[in-house]
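Q: Convert this sequence to C-alpha cells.
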Amino acid sequence: MQRYSILDLSPVPEGSTTATALSQTVDLAQHAEALGYHRFWLAEHHNMVGIASAATAVVVGQVAAHTSRIRVGSGGIMLPNHAPLVIAEQFGTLATLFPGRIDLGLGRAPGTDMGTARALRRHMDASDTFPQDVVELIQYFDDAPLDAQIRAVPGEGTQVPVWILGSSLFGAQLAAYLGLPYAFASHFAPQALEQAAATYRETFRPSRFLDAPYFMLAANVFGADTEEEAAYLRTSQQQAFANLRLGRPGKLPRPVRNIADIVPAPYLASAEEALSISATGTPAMVREQLRTLVDRYQPDEMIVTGMIHDHAARKRSFAIAAEALRDLTRTAQAA
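A:
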C-alpha cells in the first residue's frame, strides 16, 4: 500500500444543519491534511437531507481553498447526471485554481432515486453512454487542436487525473480497458470486491495514464479509545443504512447503546453486510483490522470513511485510522 486517503459525504447529523455540515467538512479536510492523508474526496448525492455534498464541485473548491497540500476531488461525480463538457469546465476551473491538487472520480450510478434523476437530467436516455462520456471528458482535458470547435475553457491542457469508481464488474472492466486508476465502493457494496479487483488487475491495459493497475480500496472506520465507544459510534451508520432500506432516509441518526432495540433484525443484518469492509474498535483493533484488509486485498491505496454523528469523535476516529495506516504504509514500503 502506497497511500491512504479520506472519503467524506459531508453528513448532516440529527439536530444540525447543512451549513454546519459543510463547515465541518472543511474542518475535517484541514485535520486530514495535518494527519498526512493523501486525498480528500467528496461524493455526489441528491435529494438526501443527511448529505450536504450535492454540489460536489463547489464543495471541492471550498475544501481546496482552505487547505494547501492535500489532493481534493470527487469520489465521485455521477457522470450520467451531467454533460461531459460541464464537468470538464468545472474541474478544469478547479485544476486551474489549485494546480496539481484536483482529482476527478467518475461513477455511473445516479447517486439518487429515479425521480430525482429525472429532475436532474430532464429526460432519461435508455442507452448507457458512460464509456463514451468518460472518453469525451478526458479529451476535453487534453491540449485541444487549433481548429477544435468545442473546447473546455478552463479545462483544456489541465490533464486532470480521472478515476473510475464502481461497485460492480462494469467499472473494473472499463477502468482496465482505458488504463485508468480504479476505486471500488467496498465501504457500502462489498459483494463483488474480490472479483472486481481481480478483473481490473488481470485485464488492465497500460496507457498514457498508468503503466500498471492502481487499485483503491474503500473501508469504513469507527475508532475510539474503547471498544464500547467505537461500537456506539458505529450505530449511527447502521441506523442510516437500515433507514434507507426501510424507505425513511433522513439526517444521520444519533448513536444508541443497543442497536438491536432500534433496528429490526433483518435490516440490521443487511446493514452489517453492507458495512463488512470496516475497522471498528480501539487503536490496536483498528490497526489489526486494517492490516487484515490490506493483506487480503493488496490495495495500492486505501480510502477510509465513517459516518459518525459527533464531529469531534469523527476527527478522533480518522486520527486513529491515520496512525494505523501510516504504520501499514511504512511497513509496505520497507518490504
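The chain has one domain: 3-221+279-334.
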